[in-house]
Amino acid sequence: MSTAGQVIKCRAAVAWEAGKPLSIEEVEVAPPQKEEVRLKILFTSLCHTDVYFWEAKGQHPLFPRIYGHEAGGIVESVGEGVTDLQPGDHVLPVFTGECKECRHCKSEESNMCDLLRINTDRGTMLSDGKSRFSKDGKPIYHFLGTSTFSEYTVCHVGSVAKINPAAPLDKVCVLSCGICTGFGATVNVAKPKKGSSVAIFGLGAVGLAAAEGARVSGAARIIGVDLNSNRFEEAKKFGVNEFVNPKDHNKPVQEVIAEMTDGGVDRSVECTGSIQAMISAFECVHDGWGVAVLVGVPNKDDAFKTHPVNFLNERTLKGTFYGNYKPRSDLPGVVEMYMNKELEVNLGLGRCCTRWCAE
């Protein structure tokens, strides 16, 4: 029986207060409005960003709220004006979007859509400023335009990527955030050459994806840097072949890496959010051609400090957002890389995938 146009009652994990345990509740999910789609979420992962904002460390407190932004599902129904998606399509909702009309979307150099760029404070839909979630007549706010900790959710069509229906959603759901963020930071931004050296700061899920990008690019030396040596064995599966734990040395880790690599690595990718790791990642690249890419999100009061001569010596510092991928245009192709066994997404660290029993 079709549920299009009707309010759906389903289960969702609701955050009522900052830092308080999530509560499984029966909520109501309204039909999609103009330029929106309603999704049946089959698999959702836990990203540390969900925890960060659930604790209200990076936002103005906005509760009650349904978190979750790394997931896979199927289109249940579409709203007015939606032409490129239809019920039954397999999709990945993404925390950022691609309207395909703004200057950023039309640029080959940017994926930071003017309309659908990440907004952690917004808790309602763009079309009417209202939430599609409610309980007992009271609204429950959205998170990152996705809110995947619910059996059904409503997203703007520009934040939903249609993918190959043969792709296993329980595996490729992590492409909607962590994998693309790390992998793209390496292949799209750092762009290491075959035979080069790459240092990866932080060997959590995003760091492992960045290491995978270095492996796929043909880097010869992939140096993993992490304060937790227990992560080193898992990282070998993603091409990391040398390791440094800063706690094992009595000098700055950038100096350790420079000594290991005759002056510095060709590329570095920072995936921790630690301001000190960011500085180390920049200062450990080789002068003349070294490129450092920052991925991690720092605390709001952090400041990046390095001597200007590091830039004058022709080191380059770059930032990236979602690995410079445009979600609607590029994500289907990344899924095909996985299907063709060109990309490893089975991260043993940092992700927990849950299936919603919404059959």
From TrEMBL:
<feature type="domain" description="Alcohol dehydrogenase-like C-terminal">
    <location>
        <begin position="205"/>
        <end position="337"/>
    </location>
</feature>
<comment type="subunit">
    <text>Homodimer.</text>
</comment>
<feature type="domain" description="Alcohol dehydrogenase-like N-terminal">
    <location>
        <begin position="34"/>
        <end position="163"/>
    </location>
</feature>
<comment type="similarity">
    <text>Belongs to the zinc-containing alcohol dehydrogenase family.</text>
</comment>
<dbReference type="InterPro" id="IPR036291">
    <property type="entry name" value="NAD(P)-bd_dom_sf"/>
</dbReference>
<dbReference type="GO" id="GO:0004022">
    <property type="term" value="F:alcohol dehydrogenase (NAD+) activity"/>
</dbReference>
<dbReference type="InterPro" id="IPR002328">
    <property type="entry name" value="ADH_Zn_CS"/>
</dbReference>
<dbReference type="InterPro" id="IPR013154">
    <property type="entry name" value="ADH-like_N"/>
</dbReference>
<keyword id="KW-0862">Zinc</keyword>
<protein>
    <recommendedName>
        <fullName>Alcohol dehydrogenase</fullName>
        <ecNumber>1.1.1.1</ecNumber>
    </recommendedName>
</protein>
<dbReference type="InterPro" id="IPR013149">
    <property type="entry name" value="ADH-like_C"/>
</dbReference>
<keyword id="KW-0560">Oxidoreductase</keyword>
<keyword id="KW-0520">NAD</keyword>
<dbReference type="Pfam" id="PF00107">
    <property type="entry name" value="ADH_zinc_N"/>
</dbReference>
<dbReference type="GO" id="GO:0051903">
    <property type="term" value="F:S-(hydroxymethyl)glutathione dehydrogenase [NAD(P)+] activity"/>
</dbReference>
<dbReference type="GO" id="GO:0008270">
    <property type="term" value="F:zinc ion binding"/>
</dbReference>
<dbReference type="InterPro" id="IPR011032">
    <property type="entry name" value="GroES-like_sf"/>
</dbReference>
<keyword id="KW-0479">Metal-binding</keyword>
<dbReference type="GO" id="GO:0005829">
    <property type="term" value="C:cytosol"/>
</dbReference>
<dbReference type="GO" id="GO:0046294">
    <property type="term" value="P:formaldehyde catabolic process"/>
</dbReference>
<dbReference type="Pfam" id="PF08240">
    <property type="entry name" value="ADH_N"/>
</dbReference>
<keyword id="KW-0963">Cytoplasm</keyword>
